[in-house]
Amino acid sequence: MFAILYIVVVIILLAVMVGLYQKNTNAMCKSKKRLDGKTTIITGGTTGIGLRIAIDFADRGAKVIIACPYSDEGASAIKTVNDKTGSEKVIYKYLDLASLDSVRKFAADIMNTEDRLDILVNNAGVGIVGDFLTKDGLNFIMQVNYFGHFLLTLLLLPLLKKTGRPSEPTRIVNMSSILHNIGKIDLENLNKTNYWYKIQIYGHSKLALVLFARELTCRLRDSRDTHVVINSVDPGLVGTNIYYSAGSIRGVIIKFLCYTLCKTPWEGAQTAIHVAMDKKAGEVSGEFFKNCKQATAHRSAYDKKVAKQLWEESVRLVKMNDKELNSCFLDL
Fold first, then answer.
1. In whole angstroms, what is the distance from residue 106 CA to residue 109 CA?
2. pTM
3. Which helix (H) or strand (E) element contains residue 257?
4. Which GO terms describe its molecular function (predicted)?
5. From the candidates 92, 146, 202, 243, which is the catalytic residue?
6. Can you point out the beta strands (E) in the chain?
7. Alpha-carbon dihedral sign for residues 183, 231, 163, 69
8. Is 292 helix (H, G, I), strand (E, B) or coil?
9. 8 A C-beta contact, residue 330 and residue 161
10. Residues 294 and 288 sit within 8 Å (Cβ to Cβ)
11. N or C terminus of the chain with fewer C-beta within 10 Å?
């Protein structure tokens, strides 16, 4: 009994130390850049970090497209953003990242209705949920967090390229996580299930987003498309609704620790906003940011061979055809 109590006390002390570190390393985006006349898309922009990013962009004058699979959450988010900013340029569009068909329909709608796209924030994600496959045959966590965003980004790339200028490139922000450090890319089976800890799959998906950003940067440079930049962000440990997906006693403990010791969603949104707004952040691509500064990701994120192989396997798994893929890199 004493041993168990000792372990509990140690865990609590470690949690407090992590929480204090998180609070002491908070950084705020200092850019005052306006977004009047600009169009932005935020996946998962209805709650948590995504909602705070939507509020910030709307307050800067941008047209904000909030993409998520729940219309009631979309309506609520629009009201929240409108109430806080007075903006009337916030809209909701249906997007279910767990469905490749939905991703294609959303992208086609954007391509047909929007004449520009300045910022794409790949923010949506799920946490410690069931380990199962979607109707597309992809692991649910991997598809929502990574595969869906991979396909969405490439389908919207022609519009991003069309909008970008040498003096003001368009920006893609991938929401990674500190847990990318425990990720590992299993190229033999990216849909591997039955991990002992579901959090491992989450880590895989967040590492994949960093590798994707680096590989897309290389391919854009090879095709001399330098008017689009893509960078990855670690928001830190943030208390968001993503932890509601954790069930049982473990989930209760996680929620308690997150909401008492971690960054608030507003604090967690700052690095993503910085990467989308800061002038210097727009001069680099394929990089990793933390606490509003360029940082170093886990060493596995810099494996060029794995990044290339991940790209090729991802193209196959999301069933991109040659026409779709070629349109990403042809001059418009």
1. 5
2. 0.88
3. helix 248-261
4. oxidoreductase activity
5. 202
6. 39-43, 63-68, 90-94, 119-122, 170-175, 228-234, 288-290, 293-295
7. positive
8. coil
9. no
10. yes
11. N
